[in-house]
Amino acid sequence: MRFQFALTLQAIWTGMCHAAMQHYPAAWGHYDVCKSQVYSDEGLTWDYMACQPEAADMTQFLKVTLDPPNITCGDPPETYCALENPYMCNNECDASTEELSHPPELMFDTEGRNPTTFWQSTTWKKYPKPLLVNITLSWNKTIELTDDIVITFESGRPEQMVLEKSLDYGRTWQPYQFYATDCLDAFTMEPKTVQDLSQHTLLDIICTEDYSRGYVWKNDKTVRFEIKDRFALFAGPRLHNMASLYGQLDTTKNLRDFFTITDLRIRLLRPATGATMVDESSLSRYFYAISDIKVQGRCKCNLHANSCVFDKEKLSCECEHNTTGPDCGRCKRNYQGRAWSAGSYLPIPKGTANICEYKQALAPSSIHKHVSSLTVAPQVALSTAPSVHAANSKRARVCDNELLRCQNGGECVNNRCSCPPSYTGLLCEKPRCESELGGCKGPDSGQASLKPPSLCSLLTLLLLDLLVVVVVFFLLGWLSPLIVKI
Ligand SMILES: [Ca+2]
Q1: pTM for the full model?
Q2: Which of 10, 25, 268, 455 shows the smallest number of beta carbons within 10 Å?
Q3: Class of the CATH-defined domain 127-299
């Protein structure tokens, strides 16, 4: 059912592409199916396609860490004032009372309830020492962002903040975007907006004042990292030309990596103050409060899986195409028939699966190459052991009546090659002289060219001689009238 449904989805998507629908696709992806069965001349076979999991709300799968760890309000309990009214100080934060506590998980619960639930920091009691908080979101898995990151603040957006990303599980960090009421003052960067970016500067890290300016009222509470506006630089303003974006993602690793993360870090550097000067007599007005963080994305499975499971607190791809690993980043054992490669989005709409192939599935003509370079498949290598007998011939099978692999006149007997005297090796591929003292150049090497001619070769030579004599006689008979004339 799911399979049919996915196919239908794909058909709908393809239709949408052709009709150039002027809507944002729900999840900018449509590579839902990894393989399908098809009838061909060889019977029922698999047709493989590039595939990826659906985009999802990734906040369900993250681990959140706060630094400093005791930065959440309520221990000890404290009162705080409303930013817009310093005399309204009737709010209380108490970690020991559920209704009055503001733990970090309230940044990720389902919103829409009233009143809003939110995480809140301690107040800025230690002013002028900066009120610094790092909120780290870790997935322990590479994920690809598919939609804007949206952070909703409940008490004014911070005056200075940096959004950072890691691609190596938090070992190293790179900035994604700087946010400030005054970019020059805070980060010595010219203020820019995402609209200033072009295809050539898409990877530039900018400082924006769009989400920090002035005091923020209820309708203006969000800070964004604009993923879709960046996609739109390649896919067009309504993301209707996804082929163009996929093409770029396929060929530009930097671009692909830009949207790929294992961790995000929100560095809060200065809370909203609502004024040019901080009122030192009322520091309980200044703190951070976040009610919601949205991170939409999908597991990165290198286009080798269409589902990703969350088991034992960890996400991992359910790999297809004979791949394995948390990101389907390598071929399964015995499936290294060719080097691993990520799938490709192109050609639209099915992409290219680049499956890992079973080693034994190589064409017989290429077997010889493998044997002679000693990179024989495991099954073949096993049979070199002298103790291999008919009992385990299933694993030790070298040849059979269909696979006439024995070379140089060798015959398949009991699934093993019986070689002529001058050849040896699993497939009779080696002249016996190679393993003898002095090698093939020695006087006793037994190499074909140095052997006395066999009866067969003598007969062949005799026949050839006879043929030459007959031809000469025939020519002479045909030419004789001419010779007489001359
Ligand atoms: Ca909430």
Answers
A1: 0.69
A2: 455
A3: mainly beta
